[in-house]
Amino acid sequence: MKLDELKPSVPKKKKKRVGRGEASGWGQTCGRGNNGQNARAGGGVKPYFEGGQMPIYRRIPKRGFSNYPFKKEFVIVSLDTLNRFEEGSTVTPELLLEKRIIKNPRDGIKILGNGTLEKKVSVKVHKISKKAADAIEAKGGSIEIIKISTFADVAKNAVTESK
By C-alpha distance, which of 146, 132, 127, 154 is closest to 72? Predict the structure, then answer.
């Protein structure tokens, strides 16, 4: 078998050329009917159009709540990762950035208790899990939580300072 002998298993149906005279069978209105929106060039309605009745996407009640605009995204750091630092060092967000352990601090850093800690380190982070806190304190390290200031905190401080 050669390339020029190949044929499709189902023969290709020839496209009807509309608007080429009455003899073609698809002349004058070209199968679109006499009048109306669909007979016009560029006419027709969108798939979700319901003929003027209230569409379903407007009839159905909207429910629920999205917390997306207020979502806090924390960078997760495992307990194993703290073993990269020297004995007795203080781990801060700046140091994590400098060592390229994290790329972007986002809304804060959280340490999770994955793995084991083998060195004594002090930690300054925004959040920490109970298991990670216990592991750090068991090795003799200390934990300092960095307070995350929100709009509410700033507003509260502004009110107390003005009094």
Answer: 127
